[in-house]
Amino acid sequence: MEWRHKNLITLEGWTREDLGFFLDQTEYMEELLNRPIKKVPALRGKIVMNCFFENSTRTRASFEIAGKVLSADVINWSSSGSSASKGETLRDTVWTLEAMAADAVVVRHGEVGVPDYLAKKLTKASIFNAGDGTNGHPTQALLDLYTARQKLGNLEGAKMAIIGDVLHSRVARSDIQAFRKMGAHVTLSGPATLMPENTASLGVEYVSDAREAAEGADILYFLRMQRERQEDGLIPSIDEYHRRWGATDSLVSLASPRAVVMHPGPMNRGMEIASSVADGPRSVILDQVRSGVAVRMALLYLCLGGVR
C-alpha cells in the first residue's frame, strides 16, 4: 500500500490497514537491529531534530538511535539549554527550526496541542508527537501494539486491562485508540478519582476492582503513578494503592495463561508494579523498549520517504 501520512500527531486518523502495514514495516526494522552492523543508508542526508521541552530517556534515546541507524543526521535540542529558557516564544522557536531546514521534528511538550501547532507552521518538515501534555503519546502506543502482536499474534478479540492513572495518562489515550482499532477489548481500572468522566465515550468500560479487570485478560497494562497524586488526595496511601491496583503476583495470576504484563516506564517499583512482576516471566517491558527503536525507525523511514 502507499503510505499517506506525513506527520504523526495522533493515531485518530489511522485505519486498521495503516496500523497493520506499519507493524509489518516495523518487523523489517527489527531485523536490521539484529544485524552485526546496524547501519543502512535509507535516510542519508536527512536532518532529524529531537525537541524535548520535557525530560525523557526512552523516547528521546530511541528516536536518536532510530535516526542514526537509518543514517540521518540527528540533533538533540532541549529547552533547558536553548533560547526557550531565556524567554523565547514557541513561535520564534518554530521559525528557527524552519530556518535550519530540518526534515523531521520530534517534539515533546507539556502543553496539549504543541505538535499540531508545529505541523501547521512547519510546512516542509514531518512532525512527530513524542507526548503532548495529557493528550497523547502515539509512538508509545505503536510500540505497545507491536510488542503485543509479536507476543500474542492477532489481537482481534484480545482482552486488555489498563490499570492506574488513566485521567493524566497520555499513553492510555493513545493505547485505547490503537488497540481498539486492532480489535482488542479494553477495560480500565483504577481509583475513580483518576478516571475520565465519561469512559464510555472512549469505547471502553471502567471497573473499579482491578481483579475483575484482570480476570482472563491477555494484556495487563500498568500505568506509571505520579506520587503527587497522593499529595493531591487523589489516591489512598501508596501501600493501599499498590494493594488494590498494583501489579502483584496475585493479580497477574488471574489473567489468561498467555497474558503479558506491560508498563510504559519509568517504573515505580513497589507502587504500581512489584519487582517480582516487572522481572517475571510474563513481563515484556524490556521488549517494549527494544520495540521502541524499531517502531521509530519505521516511522522515520515511511514519513521521510526512505528507500531500500
TrEMBL record:
Residues 156-302 form the Aspartate/ornithine carbamoyltransferase Asp/Orn-binding domain. SUPFAM superfamilies: Aspartate/ornithine carbamoyltransferase (SSF53671). Carbamoyl phosphate binds at R58, T59, R108, H137, Q140, G265, P266. Residues 6-149 form the Aspartate/ornithine carbamoyltransferase carbamoyl-P binding domain. InterPro entries: Asp/Orn_carbamoyltranf_P-bd, Asp/Orn_carbamoylTrfase, Asp/Orn_carbamoylTrfase_sf, Asp_carbamoyltransf, Asp_carbamoyltransf_Asp/Orn-bd. One of its GO terms (biological process) is 'de novo' pyrimidine nucleobase biosynthetic process. GO terms for molecular function: amino acid binding; aspartate carbamoyltransferase activity. GO terms for cellular component: cytosol. It catalyses: carbamoyl phosphate + L-aspartate = N-carbamoyl-L-aspartate + phosphate + H(+). L-aspartate binds at K86, R170, R224. Keywords: Pyrimidine biosynthesis, Transferase. Its EC number is 2.1.3.2. Pfam families: OTCace, OTCace_N. Pathway: Pyrimidine metabolism; UMP biosynthesis via de novo pathway; (S)-dihydroorotate from bicarbonate: step 2/3. NCBIfam families: asp_carb_tr, PRK00856.1. Catalyzes the condensation of carbamoyl phosphate and aspartate to form carbamoyl aspartate and inorganic phosphate, the committed step in the de novo pyrimidine nucleotide biosynthesis pathway. Belongs to the aspartate/ornithine carbamoyltransferase superfamily. ATCase family. Heterododecamer (2C3:3R2) of six catalytic PyrB chains organized as two trimers (C3), and six regulatory PyrI chains organized as three dimers (R2). This is Aspartate carbamoyltransferase.
